[in-house]
Amino acid sequence: MKTASATDVKNRFGEYLHDTVKEPVIIEKTGRPVAVMISMEEFQRFQAMEDAFWIQKAEEAEAGGYLGAKGTKAFIKAMLKEKS
Fold first, then answer.
1. How high is the pLDDT of residue 84?
2. What are the E-state strand segments in 1-84?
3. 63: which of 5, 8, 31, 77 is 20 to 30 A away, CA to CA?
4. Sheet with 32-37, side-by-side order of all strands
5. What pLDDT shows up at residue 75?
6. Options 3.40.190.10, 3.30.750.24, 3.40.1620.10, 2.40.340.10; which CATH number does 2-38 get?
């Protein structure tokens, strides 16, 4: 992974933008990493992984008995009708 100072990235943005196609670029400010530039392809890959993770969590919650917003609302309405 390539590392560059924020000032260098500002002065040579086009070069670093081009480099992100090959590998992420870590941007440092005062010697500390503060950001990472990645290609759109890499960003989309991360998005797909995150979406898959949350889909799995939702499926696990549903299998464990979580009703979701609509299901909860219907359950509460039914409970209130029973008490009236």
1. 65
2. 2-5, 25-29, 32-37
3. 77
4. 2-5, 25-29, 32-37
5. 84
6. 3.40.1620.10
